[in-house]
Automatic annotation (TrEMBL):
GO MF annotation terms: hydrolase activity, hydrolyzing O-glycosyl compounds
GO biological processes: carbohydrate metabolic process
Residue span of region Disordered: 366-387
Signal peptide location: 1-18
Keywords on record: Glycosidase, Hydrolase, Signal
Top-level taxon: Eukaryota
Name of the protein this chain belongs to: Alpha-N-arabinofuranosidase 2
Family: Belongs to the glycosyl hydrolase 43 family.
Length: 387
C-alpha cells in the first residue's frame, strides 16, 4: 500500500503546528558507524544510541539475576537475547531461538509474530506475543467487511510457557491463544495489580471496525486463561486526542493506541500504562500515558489519561523519529530507570519500517509520574553498576 500521496497535504498542514516533515530530505535508514553503537569499547564509561542496529521493532527488556533478557519482533520466530550489560551492542549478544512455527502450517500463530514479551510469573516464564495465520493477507471477502483495509484482522494473542524456572535454560511450549473473543488483538502485555493478573492489548471495538485501535483490558485467572467475558472486557483508552491520530487530528483510520506496558514508580507504587500512539511508520509515533487512579483496573474511570500530548516523542534535531513501543528496566545496581524503545532514523513514512533499538535513562517527577528525556543519540554515561 502506498501511503505517501495521501500523506503529503495533511503533513504540510502539520508544519504549521510545529511538527517537522521534509519529504525532500530522506536518508538511508541503516547506516551506522560501529564506533557509535552501544557501549564505547575504548572508554567503557559511555554509550551511544542505537544499542542494536538490526531492524528490530517492539523491544522488550527485563533485568533478572544479573542478566538483561531481550526479545523483539522478528516476524518469523521468537528470539531471546541476553547480556550482562544493557548498553553493549545487542547485534552481537548471545541469542537463543525459543519458538519457530512452520509458516505454511496455517496455525493461528504461524506468521507475522509481533511484539513478544517475556515475564516471570510465579516459578515460570511466559512469552506473550501476537501472530496471524495468513501473513496479514486476509481473504478479500473478509477484508471487504472492514470500512478500511484491515490486513491485521486475524491477529490474536498467544502464550508460551517455560518448562523450568531458568528463563535461558528452559524450553518453551505453546499454552494456546489468549481469549480476545475472536477479535483483533496485538501488542498484549501482562498488567499486575493487587495480586491479580490482567491482559492489556490493542483492540478494535468490534470484529471488523479496523480503526481506531484502542487499549482493552480483561482479567486473567492464569497467564493463559481469560476470566472476563466480552461484556466484561473494558476499553481503557481510545485515541481521542489529535496527537494520537495521523494525520494530526483526523479521527478514525490510523488513529492508534498500542504497545501498552506497565510502569510502576518504585518509590510511590503508582501504576502507569505507557502506550504507543499515532501511527507506527510515521515520525509522529510516540508514547502516551495512563495512570491507574482507582482500585479496579477494569473500570474506565479509574484510568487518568495524560492529555497534554506525548510524554516521549521524535526529536528531528537528533534525527530520531517514530519513537515508540517501549519497555522499562533499571541499571544493574537497580538505582536508575531506563526506557528501551525503537525509533527510525528517517522521517519518511515508508511502509518498509526500519527500526533500531535505543535506551535512555529517565527520572521521576515530584508527583510520581515518569520524566522522560528528549530522544537523543548520546554519548551518555553507562548505567550505574555496569562493568
Ligand atoms: C569513545 O571514547 C574515546 C576515549 O575516551 C573517545 O575518544 C571517543 O570519542 C569516544 N567515542 C564516542 C562515540 O563517544
Ligand atoms: C528468526 O527470524 C529472523 C527474521 O526472519 C531471522 O533473521 C533469524 O535467522 C531467525 N532465527 C532462526 C534461528 O531461525
Ligand atoms: C480457565 O478459567 C476458568 C474459570 O475462570 C476455568 O473454569 C477453566 O477450567 C480454566 N481453563 C484452563 C484451561 O485453565
Amino acid at each position: 500500500m502506498r501511503l505517501l500521496k495521501q500523506w503529503l497535504f495533511p503533513l504540510f498542514v502539520c508544519l504549521a503546528n510545529g511538527q517537522s516533515f521534509d519529504p525532500n530530505n530522506v536518508k538511508s535508514p541503516n547506516q551506522f558507524d560501529p564506533a557509535h553503537v552501544g557501549t564505547n569499547k575504548s572508554s567503557g564509561t559511555t554509550y551511544s544510541n542505537p544499542i542494536m542496529t538490526t531492524n528490530a521493532g517492539d523491544p522488550f527488556m527485563v533485568h533478572h539475576d544479573g542478566w538483561y533478557l531481550f526479545t523483539y519482533s522478528t516476524n518469523d520466530n521468537i528470539t531471546l537475547k541476553r547480556s550482562r550489560s544493557l548498553t553493549d551492542n545487542w547485534d552481537t549478544a548471545e541469542t537463543k531461538l525459543l519458538f519457530k512455527p512452520d509458516p505454511e502450517s496455517g496455525d493461528p500463530w504461524s506468521t507475522d509474530l509481533w511484539a513478544p514479551e517475556i515475564h516471570q510469573i510465579d516459578d515460570r516464564w511466559y512469552i506473550i506475543f501476537s501472530a496471524t495465520p495468513d501473513a496479514d493477507s486476509p481473504h478479500p471477502l473478509q477484508d471487504a467487511i472492514c470500512p478500511f483495509e484491515c490486513p491485521a484482522v486475524n491477529h490474536r494473542m498467544f502464550v508460551l510457557e517455560s518448562d523450568g524456572s531458568d528463563p535461558w535454560a528452559s524450553n518453551y511450549f505453546m499454552k494456546g491463544m489468549l481469549n480476545t473473543f475472536d477479535q483483533f488483538a496485538i501488542d498484549g502485555t501482562y498488567f499486575r495489580y493487587n495480586n491479580q493478573l490482567y491482559h492489556i492489548y490493542s483492540c478494535w471495538e468490534d470484529t471488523y471496525s479496523a480503526w481506531p485501535a484502542n487499549l482493552c483490558i480483561t482479567h486473567l485467572s492464569s497467564p493463559w486463561n481469560v476470566s472476563s467475558s466480552l461484556t466484561q472486557r473494558r476499553m481503557i483508552s481510545v485515541p481521542d486526542e489529535p496527537w494520537e491520530q495521523v494525520p494530526y487530528g483526523r479521527a478514525g483510520r490510523l488513529a492508534t493506541n498500542e504497545g501498552p506496558q506497565q510502569l510502576t514508580n518504585p518509590k510511590t507504587g503508582q501504576n502507569f500504562v505507557v502506550y504507543s500512539a499515532a501511527r507506527v511508520n510515521t515520525p509522529f509515533y510516540c508514547l502516551g500515558m495512563l495512570e491507574l487512579v482507582g482500585d479496579d483496573p477494569m473500570e474506565y474511570q479509574n484510568w487518568r489519561k495524560h492529555r497534554d500530548g506525548c510524554v516521549f516523542h521524535q526529536n528531528p534535531d537528533a534525527e530520531v523519529y517514530g519513537t515508540g513501543h517501549a519497555s522499562y528496566t533499571t541499571s544493574p545496581d537497580g538505582t536508575e530507570s531506563y526506557v528501551v524503545y525503537h525509533a527510525q532514523t528517517t522521517d519518511d513514512p515508508t511502509p518498509d519500517l526500519y527500526r533500531t533499538v535505543r535506551t535512555q535513562k529517565f527520572t521521576w517527577n515530584e508527583d510520581g509520574t515518569p520524566n522522560f528525556p528528549k530522544a537523543l543519540n548520546g554519548p551518555f554515561p553507562v548505567p550505574k553498576g555496569q562493568k
